[in-house]
Amino acid sequence: MEHASAAGMTTVVVPEERRLPEAGLNGMILRWAFMDKAMISFGALQMAWATTVVLGGFSTLIKQKDFWFVAIISFREATRLYGSAVDPEEFIINAPEVVAAKTEEIEAKEQGSWQRHHRTNRPDQGPNQTAAPPPPRRGGLLGWSSSLTSGRRRFCTCSLFFTKTLTTVFKFAQFAVGITSVVLAVLRLSRQDYVDAADQSSSDHKSIKGSLNLFYGLVLAQGVSSFLADTMIPIDVRRVMKLRMTYQLGQSGVLIIKRYMLDTYMKCSDGEVHLVGVRVLDRVLSMEKYSGLALMRLRASIDTVGSVVSMLGLKNKTREEENTRGHAANVVLELSPDLQVESFPAVLQMVSSLLTAKTTAASTTSNVSVELTWLGVKIVRKIMDNPDNCKEVVKDADDQVISSIVDLTAVSDYNSSSISWSPVTEEIIVEAVQVLHRLVRTTGDAGKVLRCKISENLHVLRNIRKILEHPRSHTELRTEAIGVLACLALDETGKKEIGGSARIIRKLVPSLVVETPSPSNRVKLAKSAVEALLVLAVDSQRNALRILEELKIEDMQQLVDMLSSDSTELRTMAAKLLAVLRVNSITEHVQYNRTVDNALPLLLKAIKLEVEKLYALVPAAGELHAHDANLEEWRTKQGALLESFVGLSVRVCTFIQASEFGDALRNANLTVDLLMHALSRILDMYMSPDTEYPGIRRVTVELIIWMLRSNRRCIEFFFRHQVDKAVKEVAETEERLEMFNMFCCGVGVAKHREPISSLVASAASALPRIARRLPGEVSAENTIPIA
Prior knowledge:
With about 775 residues, the protein is mainly α.
């Protein structure tokens, strides 16, 4: 059996043993439909025949008892046909009070419905008391308590008893009338005494016998059809009970299956999923055995998915609407990883309706609101895991999604109790910040628009700052919040406002501290903080100086120590930040600069070692086998590391003397020959720059040029290793992305004033003047290790 899923999903072949076992149920529905059609047809024919022929043509000629038999049977059939469109039991049970009682009973037996958490701070529970442990998935967020008084409960119980009694009497009456009709038909067909003996020869009575035989025959055929259908009821009941147990549908399983069969048979709902339908979907999806297959079938029906999504927009006016939204939210949460917003444009608006403000009110309504908000933000986060869906948020004209998500990131000051820091509240905040992070790191033009919109929100930076300042913000939350700042700094408005907030920068600096050893999440936090500070400082001396104002000497040393970290990404980001701070420093930062300059031997030695490791695995101009994805990923990380280390070395060399550079080479146990060879290999291995290392060739050429200008003896090794040809090729093959200092979220940051070709041309013009001094003696101040 094949299922072609919607919205471009691939066709999936389902093994026989994994199919949902509802085929028997559908067959039973088909049999019921056939028998029902047969009974309706026989009944319609007998009523038409009786009214138009028997009673219409022979009403004065047939015997009085046949007249009354035909009239009563016809009246009964007319009543049955009229009432077949409405189930009397459902009509009576739909009384509001009885429905309320039944809902309470079902939820009590199933220990809650769609909610996933307990209410955390109940009115009778003090702030220091431990909340009850969370129950299983069906345990209920808020620990539902009955809203009915005992008197109302007794009234509803009596109403339900009266309804059941009346329904049972009605069904027995129908059964008795049916049996009586069959018995009468059999008796009249067996006796055949429709006409008195004196009238049998009359021409007016000739057709009476045939007409009544046909009428009673139709009554008998209808009765037999009804009898055959009734004999299958025990088998059908067992099948329904087995299906209920298979799907673990609970006490409401029979009602669920009955509603399914009714909707399937009558085809009156036109694909709409009601509360009972969405409840069974929710229940099946919570079962590991069937969830995968059920999800596949659900995804294949665009109409069904659209109906479930539309239920999220209900207004919670009634308990049924509230429960429908909850169950629908659970179902959409399971579907959300594969939802394409382009295929369901209304999904963002519907989900946004769930994103209400967090509250600490103890009422049931407020607790339901928190639970729906928790589900809503979970759904949005999973939908936004797909970058294409993030781009669809741009089309939200009134920015409802952005505003709702930003509002959910609001936390109180740590000394305020306006919002309790409960586990559910914390999860909502974390998920909301993750959604913001996914939106602001969107690439392309859509990403620029999203960052601009979010930067213009009046509360986003305040909320992020309070998250960073709150003492109960854990590492994961802080990492995501800082990631949002880093991406917002790509927008000019965001960069200006973040840079102007001393409190934000003051909270970023402590995140740089990483103990050794340190857990991976702490390293991620430090990397995120370094990245945010880097994006703020690059191409902005104002922001760089503000960062330097907040840094202490030990903080600067911490950054230098990161150059030896076990994390390649952390080493890379730290080197880039140090380079930006070193360039933008002023005379007051002499001690800071000395701390950075002292790291030059470490940098030069690391460049040589990393190049050797890389060259051993990638010897031929950076060529890799296409299938070796791991090696390509490692090569990319090494390229970014070399770019940052060489770049920092260039910035340090710009502010030191040639003699200090010679000391650094000796401390690193290097010579000009070895370093020039390593730099030539970098140009050889990274002939094609990437957004992960756009400036690797530029900074390498800059360091080579500085070496040539600092000491004339470097020219010998420049030509010996044919670096001149490599530099010329770089100038001739310069790419547009090499004009940017770095890339973040696909956006080029800090464009250089002049291309590489201009640097090379300037160096080439100065090279002859340096070369003419080559035969001379080495001066005392230029004692650089040569070979």
